[in-house]
Amino acid sequence: MSVGKSRWDEVGYVISSRYRVLVLERLIEGPATPSRIATDSGSSITHVSRALQQLREQSHVELLVSEDRKKGRIYGITGVGRSLWETVKQKNLG
């Protein structure tokens, strides 16, 4: 399967931040809260929250609970994010 330019732009966007890479890597295992992702990846909650917001804007992750929920926000990887992560790992970029 050939990967088009826009796909490479998305790959470049993800791998340009180690936090975006860490978040996707953790979410590929299953849904998690920001604090669980931070703990599992050894990152600060601030960096994880920012990466989640950025990845959500790109439709790579999604909020799985109600938008108005402030605590216990659970995020999951989208089909787009999963496909993107497979490209990152397949090409050994992450």
Automatic annotation (TrEMBL):
Segments forming domain HVO-A0261-like N-terminal: 9-89
InterPro entries linked to this entry: ArsR-like_HTH, HVO_A0261-like_N, WH-like_DNA-bd_sf, WH_DNA-bd_sf
N-terminal signal peptide = none
The record's Pfam families line, in alphabetical order, gives: HVO_A0261_N
Q: Which CDD domains match?
A: HTH_ARSR (cd00090)
| Protein name as it appears in the record | Winged helix-turn-helix domain-containing protein
- What species was this sequence derived from? Halobellus rarus
